[in-house]
Amino acid sequence: MTKDLTTGSPMRLIAGFALPTLFGMLFQQLYNLVDTMIVGKLLGSAALGGVGSTGSINFFVIGFCMGVCNGFAIPVAQRMGAGEPSKMRRFAANAAWLSILFAVVLTTATGLLCRRILTVMRTPADIFDHAYAYIFVIFMGIPATFLYNLLAGIIRSLGDSKTPVYFLALSSCLNIALDFALILGFHAGVAGAAIATVTSQGVSGIACLFYMRKKYPILRMTREERRLDLHACGVLCAMGIPMGLQYSITAVGSIVLQSSVNALGSLYVTAVAAGAKVYQLLACPFDAMGATMATYCGQNVGACRLDRLSQGIRACSLLGLGYSVIAFCAMLRFAPQCALLFLDPRELDVVLLTELTARYILIQSAFFFPLSLVNIVRFSIQGMGFSPFAILAGVLEMAARTGVGLILVPMFGYTAACFASPAAWVCADLFLVPASMACIAKLRRLYPNQPEETPAVQPVPLKAGAHR
Known about the structure:
By secondary structure, the protein is mostly helical. It has one domain (about 10-445). The chain is built from 18 helices and no strands. It has helices spanning about 10-45, 45-50, 55-80, 85-120, 125-140, 140-155, 165-185, 190-215, 225, 230-265, 265-280, 285-300, 305-340, 350-365, 370-385, 385-410, 415-420, 420-445. Helix 3 (about 55-80) packs parallel to helix 6 and helix 12 packs parallel to helix 15 (about 370-385). The two termini are about 25 Å apart. The relative contact order is 0.14. Mean pLDDT is about 85; it is low at about 450-468.
């Protein structure tokens, strides 16, 4: 059930590991896509705009949760690569304790502050109630987000990228059924779409938990391994919190940008909401590549196979380049058709909405290769154990989006908003690419006796500060 990523062709290993991960992320995006399509088609553009206006604050909070879970999984991958199953289980157990704590705190805080946040973001009055009804339910489902993402991250750390896909496939079917039942049958509106998403993710998380207990003997823990360990918690927080903050810091710029788009009016909010859903689906391969590189680099650092780090980054970057070209060519032809998936043809402004949405999609897809590098290089750095660098990259993304939102959108309008994310990706790459080289060089200085092309048997020791 597990897979060793420390031997064999990096290209074949990365492609083979990323493909099941991609299917899992496509199913995860299917949740949001189905919600958006059903809301837009059945409830109208105002409801769609309400859901879309919550995208940045959703990313701010839920992105932090996902980043923390991904960070918690890295020490598990490193101990797996080092051949230390007992320490690996101890990290997995303490990651669960920390996740419970984070879930309780975040659910309480976001529930209390939800309405105030939407007000500060200048959410248009005609879509405010829709926005609140949707995002409040999503925030109440934070425990389900932690449950699934932590367990899926641990499974991937063991080298198994297929199992989480099966549960997400089941959950996506459940999500579709619940969407129609709650919106059409129970007339629950946008809250029904949110309930369907949260319930489906909770089901996938519970299914993962039962499956892991039955099928992964390597995760069967003793009472001692299950105990709270402050040192292990410190290592996990040193890895997980910076990864979570990287998402949240990046999202700050998105919140500022969303506020500027909100000021343009609900028509533009709806166009961005529809375009963002297409972009998120198209960007799934980059997310899969990032998740793959975190596990790949984590295992190889744990096994002291430092020679394979640069090889893996190069191989994955080639995959990213190839997909970026294909995706952009496809959107040159099909962007308007993709936009209409989320819009009701009976709307009075459907022609203008389609043009605005297609423009957003095309501009994003033209810069997909910089986005691929952001994911590949950033997650590689995190897998090596240098999570603070991810925060610096997030700061650059935040600065770029904030600058566009505060300065360029008021001057040039909607088109400037479409270029905000591409500007953020380019700024992040200017830092991340040389930073990755510096991280690999530092590892080589720390462990100079490791041979270049032969596997090492000694694990990398945990050190405070730079690494795990």
